[in-house]
Each structure stands twice: as structure tokens, then as C-alpha cells.
Amino acid sequence: MNVKKTPSARPAATRRRIVEAALRVFARRGYHEATMDDIAAASRLSKGALYLYFPSKQDLFLSLVDSLADMLVRRMEAAMAAAGPSRRQKLRAALEAGFRLFQRHRPVVRLIFLKLASLGPPLDVKQVEILDRIAALIRRELDAAVAEGSLVLEDTETVARMWVGALHAVLIHWLHQRKPPPLRQYFPTVYATLLRSIGLEEEGGGREVGK
């Protein structure tokens, strides 16, 4: 049986469609070359209708950053839920999921973290929010490991932020390269180093993160 969408559901679905179209347009054309006309066409909306949802290109891009951050956290959480029972397996799965998303959306991730200084404080805030959400997810798993007795740490918040700092440094290095290797090539060293920073070793040896 077909379920008729309610009026309140339609605007939310339209916003999602616009953001998904904007992701494709910004990835292909960059921020400054992309126009609201391009995004309206990709969204199959009139330009006037597009402006009803987003009053400017900057507002739309910042909403896209929020959407990408939500996607990142959802995929990391889903990967942890599907992983093995140990906290190391869950942390590995979460980080692998993050690496895959950054690889897939590299052009837009590059805009967010490298290219759009012109957006100033509004984008700076979004960058910090993304890193804070990753740190919170990591800290949650570290806290669980401490609670179950598989890890001894006194300050999981600082450790989580140190992990995020290391991940961010690797990400920025990769984004700066004109012809970068696949991001997954960095993963074995990054993951092993993060584990050793809290006195752990990998379970069953290292393996390369999938595409």
C-alpha cells in the first residue's frame, strides 16, 4: 500500500533533495564556480523555489556540511554496531567508515577543510563541530572499554581529542596533495599508532581498510 506523504514531510524531502544535488554540484564545480542556478537545475526546482529553502549559496553550503557530518556519524555508528564484540574492533570499524566517507567525498571535504577561508567563522564553527562529534564518538567507546575493564585510562576526553587531532593532521596532509594516494593507504599506520598510544595492539594483525 502506498503511503501518502504528509505536507510536513514534503519540505523535509525537498530539502534533502536540494542538499544531495548541491553535494554533486559543489563536488564537480567547486564552491565559487557553482551557482544557485546549477543547484536548482540539479534539484529539478525553479530558482525561486530553491531560494524558499535556502536564502543564499553560503546557507546551502553550511547546511550541506551539517548533512555530511550527520552522514559521517551515522556510518561510523552503523559500522560499530556491525563490528565484532571488542572495543578495538568497533573503533577500527568506525575509523574505517570515516576514511571511506572522506575518500568518496574528497572534493567537498577539501572545500570544507582547505579551500573556503572566505566563509570565515561560520565554516570554522562547522569544522569544529565535525571534529567534536568524532571525538565524542571515540570517547564513548573508550569510556565503555574502561567501564568493562579492558582499558585503563584516566582522561578519555583528552585521549579522544588527541586521536582526532592526529586523524585531522593526516586528513589535511592528504587533502593538500594534488595526486593523493587512496586515503586507505594511511589507515594501517594511523590505526596501529592510535592503539599504541593507549597501550593496546591490534587484534589478529593489521589489514588494509576496504574501499
Kindly summarize this structure in a few lines.
With 211 residues, the protein is an all-alpha fold. It has 9 helices and no strands.
By CATH, the architecture of the largest domain is named: Orthogonal Bundle
State the share of residues found in helices, binned by percent: over 70%
Tally of DSSP helical segments = 9
Query: What's the number of extended β-strand segments?
Result: 0
> Whole-Å distance between the termini?
37 Å
Q: What portion of the residues fall into strands of 2 or more residues?
A: under 5%
Structural class: mainly alpha
Low-confidence segments: 3-8, 205-211
List keywords for this structure.
mainly alpha, disordered C terminus, 9 helices, Arc Repressor Mutant, subunit A, 211 residues, Tetracycline Repressor, domain 2
Describe it.
By secondary structure, the protein is an all-alpha fold. The chain folds into 2 domains: 55 residues, Arc Repressor Mutant, subunit A (Orthogonal Bundle); 156 residues, Tetracycline Repressor, domain 2 (Orthogonal Bundle), CATH 1.10.357.10. Helix content is 71%, strand content 0%. The protein is built from 9 helices and no strands. Helix 1 packs across helix 2, helix 1 packs across helix 4 and helix 4 runs antiparallel to helix 5. It is elongated, with a radius of gyration of 19 Å. The two termini are 37 Å apart. The N terminus and C terminus are likely disordered.
